[in-house]
TrEMBL record:
<feature type="domain" description="EAL">
    <location>
        <begin position="1"/>
        <end position="259"/>
    </location>
</feature>
<protein>
    <submittedName>
        <fullName>Cyclic Di-GMP phosphodiesterase RmdA</fullName>
    </submittedName>
</protein>
Length: 259
């Protein structure tokens, strides 16, 4: 695959860049942070999304240096936002971790080093791990995540609800946030809301709060949807209704408006 072959040079040449999508507190509408979403400005094909190259990077192991670059860059950006007073504290940056990164022996040490270099508190970082990456993980495999969680890094379960998991496993995971997959919130885009979707979200929120987990909803595209989700007790939202992923300076403009 020609894209695969070009990945290492692309990393060396600085062809990757990050867009940030704000995370908004449903309670008061303030920006609380942003998710870092990597893109590749390919010299021939133009901007490529992560779905087009993350699986290739995962397959070749390049995901480890690429993922570390994303983490470094996002941490540096979070420090700039903090210094500029961009968001109300506590402000966070969310970074996606792929399964190979989870298994990489120096994940904890690398993450600690990145946070120290950026002068960032661990609580300013949220690592997103997909439900499918954790299904079946035993205690030994979970240890690095648990160490990071114990240091104060927030761990979020991404695409929650799309894996075939036993819900009782939630109690064993070192996670503090559930990111509810957007398939559950699609039925609330317009009024009246889909009553089954409402019941499902209600149930998940109740379970999450019982376990002291915070709930973030993805794919919020309309104000009606945001209102439903706020009423259902969801804590944080992300989606086109608030903002599409964009350059880091856009986040500053957004949070100045809402403050
Ligand atoms: O907005 P978007 O098309 O960028 O995101 C598509 C998918 O790519 C999402 O599921 C997201 O989790 C994943 N993704 C985005 N950035 C990264 C990254 O830096 N690392 C990994 N592993 N996945 C990412
Ligand atoms: O990590 P994750 O799969 O959650 O990444 C978020 C993905 O969802 C990205 O591809 C992002 O561009 C996309 N996205 C973000 N907000 C919305 C939205 O409101 N609607 C839809 N359809 N997609 C969204
Ligand atoms: Mn994500
Ligand atoms: Na997701």
């Amino acid at each position: 695959h020609s894209l695969t072959n070009r990945l290492p040079a692309a990393l060396d040449n600085g062809e990757f860049f990050i867009e940030y999508q704000p995370l908004v507190a449903l309670g008061d509408g303030t920006v609380r942070g942003a998710e870092a979403l990597v893109r590749w400005l390919h010299p021939v094909h133009g901007v490529l999304g992560p779905d087009q190259f993350i699986p290739l990077a995962e397959g070749t192991g390049l995901i480890v240096p690429l993922g570390r670059w994303v983490l470094e860059e996002a941490a540096r950006q979070a420090r700039l936002w903090r210094d500029a007073g961009t968001c109300r504290e506590p402000m966070r940056v969310n970074v996606n971790l792929s399964p190979s990164q989870l298994r990489y022996p120096s994940l904890v040490a690398d993450t600690v080093a990145v946070l120290e270099d950026a002068g960032l508190d661990p609580s300013a970082l949220c690592l997103e791990v997909t439900e499918n990456a954790l299904i079946g993980a035993d205690e030994r495999e979970l240890r690095p995540l648990r160490q990071l969680a114990d240091m104060g890094v927030d761990i979020a379960l991404d695409d929650f609800g799309t894996g075939y998991s036993n819900l009782s496993y939630l109690r064993r995971l070192p996670v503090s946030t559930l990111k509810l997959d957007r398939s559950f919130t699609r039925g609330m885009q317009s009024a009246p809301a889909d009553p089954v979707d409402v019941k499902i979200v209600e149930g998940i929120v109740s379970l999450a709060h019982t376990l002291d987990l915070s709930v973030t909803v993805e794919g919020v595209e309309t104000g009606i949807q945001a209102a439903h989700l706020r009423m259902l007790g969801c804590d944080t939202a992300q989606g086109w209704y608030y903002a599409r992923p964009g350059p880091p300076d856009r986040l500053c403009a957004l949070s100045l408006v809402d403050a």
